[in-house]
Design brief:
The chain has 235 residues and is of the alpha/beta class. Helices cover 38% and strands 15% of the residues. It is globular and about 60 Å long. One of its GO terms (molecular function) is N-acylglucosamine-6-phosphate 2-epimerase activity.
Length: 235
């Protein structure tokens, strides 16, 4: 296990991402968010786009899990879907590249196995995280040699169980099956400290939390929606 992965063990990874239509979108905002997360105890950062990764790299020294979300017309895969995006993430300074590792075909009809073999040949010293949606995909990713397995995509593919809560069952099953072969990272809809604690109790190596920490508009909405009608606020 590499030093970079060792630094994430038992740690909180904060996902600092904002889409173009969101108020916090922009590399400067995400770099500040990453710095704030580090002050709060984050062991690592997950970030989207070369621009954000570069800006965050300039502000923090913790491991960065980088990805690049790009949509292609011929594939539903959008998390670092081609070698081009892998190269951009590596060049931006990420320590680990996160990729969609679901069973779906990538742009150009490429399979995950073909893509991963090409990525490893092109970037032999790079670490790769497999974002999976099912137990079977996780086991397949372990067999392919991914450095970390994350439950990121559970509930976001047609063939995975749709849910509002984090898929902690999947975390536990993969952690038991991996038996040290690959670190299992809990990710996806973790909104409370109790859910985070349970993920670690089930065997998670590390855990990623995003919106519950880094999307102020969603945090504010949760509080605003809790105000009773009896408070008399006018619309």
């Amino acid at each position: 296990m590499t030093g970079v992965i060792d630094r994430l063990k038992g740690g909180l990874i904060v996902s600092c991402q904002a889409l173009p239509h969101e108020p916090m979108h922009g590399a400067g905002h995400m770099a500040a968010m990453a710095a704030a997360a580090l002050e709060g105890g984050a062991a690592g950062i997950r970030a989207n786009s070369p621009q954000d990764i570069r800006a965050i790299r300039a502000r923090v020294a913790v491991p960065i899990i980088g990805l690049h979300k790009v949509e292609y017309a011929d594939s539903p895969v959008y998390i670092t879907p081609t070698i081009r995006e892998v190269a951009e993430v590596v060049d931006a300074g990420a320590d680990i590249v996160a990729v969609d590792a679901t069973e779906r075909l990538r742009p150009g009809g490429q399979t995950l196995k073909q893509f991963f073999a090409e990525a490893k040949a092109r970037f032999p010293g790079m670490l790769f995280m497999a974002d999976v949606s099912t137990y079977e995909e996780g086991i397949a990713a372990i067999g392919m040699g991914f450095d970390l397995i994350s439950t990121t995509m559970s509930g976001y593919t047609p063939h995975s169980a749709q849910r509002q809560e984090p898929d902690l069952e999947l975390v536990g099953k993969l952690a038991a099956a991996a038996a040290g072969a690959a670190p299992i990272v809990a990710e996806g809809r973790i909104e409370t400290p109790d859910q985070l604690r349970e993920a670690f109790e089930l065997g998670a190596f590390a855990a990623v939390v995003g919106s519950a920490i880094t999307r102020p508009q969603l945090i504010a909405r949760r509080f605003a929606s809790a105000i009773p009608d009896s408070a008399g606020r006018k619309p």
